[in-house]
Amino acid sequence: MLERIRGNTSVVAAVAITALLYGVVIAGRLAYHNWDPSFFVVAGHAFCDESSAPQGLTIFTPYGYDGQFYYRLALDPLTNQRVEYGITIDHPAYRQQRILYPVLARIVALGANSRVPWSMIMVNYLAVCGLAFSAARLAGLFAMPAIYGLVIPFFPGVLLGLVRDLPDPLAISLMVFSLYLLHSRHITFAACMLALAVLTRETVILLAAALFLHSGWRALRRQSAWTESVRLAIPLAAYAAWQLWLFARWGILAAAAASGSLLGFPLHAAGILLIEASRTALGLHPFLLVEVLFLGAMVLLAAIGFIQSAVDPGVKLAWLIYLALAVFLSRAVWVEDWAFMRGSEELIVLGLIIVIGVGERRLLPIVFAPTLAIWLALAARTMIAQ
Q1: CA-to-CA dists, residue 242 to 248, 260, 280, angstroms
Q2: Rounded Cα–Cα distance for residues 248 and 88 (Å)
Q3: DSSP designation for 307
Q4: Per-residue burial over 171-186, b = 16 or more CB atoms within 10 Å of its CB, e = otherwise
Q5: Closest C-alpha among 353, 364, 269 to residue 316
Q6: pTM given for the model
Q7: How would DSSP label each residue in 65-118?
Q8: Beta strand residue intervals within the chain, DSSP E
Q9: Among 19, 51, 67, 110, which residue's beta carbon has the most beta carbons within 10 A?
């Protein structure tokens, strides 16, 4: 009983720490930019017409960033118009794949366009707090202190997604919650949460596919019931249904809309980035190199603990798939931390779960210290950066 109380206290502490530090970042970014929540949208003149855009939307960059498209979708989630509210969506089918985040932002805003910039921040903030809870609980399942679960919400990609109104924090939160439920053997609930994650960030479908394939293999070997595989097919069915809807709406396969620009020759783009990062380090600007080496170290630690880890084998299979995908990512991803930290999100988060699943307490501080250090550096930068 006492151990359970201590465990719950540790989980609460992990959530409180996450809520406090992320709250400081949000407040600092808002304060530095005159308490303008639309600054998180990062709207650009190339896609936003200032004369017809919603009142209160600050347009301050030439091209903006992806958050401007999710803001547009939050104004009308099921739109069939590429241009509306003075905002042009670059690839409508591709952006509308990630429908859950704008839908939730619309709901939290109670349908009021003026409140959407605030609701987008709120949805992601609550998602990060939920991520801290799920990660802490997941750590507890592997007999690890809940506080070490914080390596997941403090992965820098989560922060970068939050400060530019992107769906990444919500997707990762739902993904980790689904894995907590999976390891707790709440299969149906886990599958439903994973389906929501897939509708938030379509790349999560690779995890869903890996879990389904492994479950089917176990069923073939009569190590589990086929009913488990059927339940784990829920995310795949949700993904397929939504892709069909998008095809009917836009006449294009959303899943293939941007794949040509995101994939390239194996390790070519990553190698170029490493060379460039090394050059900037020689010029006394080592942070980019530190970030790249951090990702490499996280992958290496996951590889070292791969066999020993007690995580579900389907998670390990998914990690291998994401690792292969990272090798083929193009310069569109391996270009800056805003891109490669987010592009490798599932790979690193699943890798961190694999490391937690090793159950070696001496290993987690080695992971946690550099993760928090890079997070703090990026947090300071994002408070004032675009």
Answers
A1: 10, 21, 43
A2: 20
A3: T
A4: bbbbbbbbbbbbbeee
A5: 353
A6: 0.93
A7: -THHHHHHHHHSTT---SEETTEE-SSHHHHHTS-HHHHHHHHHTTT-GGGHHH
A8: 43-44, 59-61, 83-84, 87-88
A9: 67
Task: Tell me the pLDDT tens digit for each residue of 181-207.
Answer: 999 999 999 999 999 999 999 999 999
Tokens for 61, please give them: 């960059």
Rounded Cα–Cα distance for residues 218 and 343 (Å): 31
> Tokens at residue 263, please?
């994939």
Residue whose structure tokens are 């299969």: 187
Report, in this order, helix, strand and coil percent for the chain, each rounded to 5. Answer: 70, 5, 25
Instruction: For the chain, report the end-to-end CA distance as a whole number of angstroms.
Output: 49
As a whole number of angstroms, the distance between CA 106 and CA 75 comes to: 7
| Tokens 């080695």 -> residue | 366
Q: Which helix (H) or strand (E) holds 19?
A: helix 2-32
CB atoms within 10 A of CB 239: 21
Task: Determine the average pLDDT of the residues in 80-92.
Answer: 93
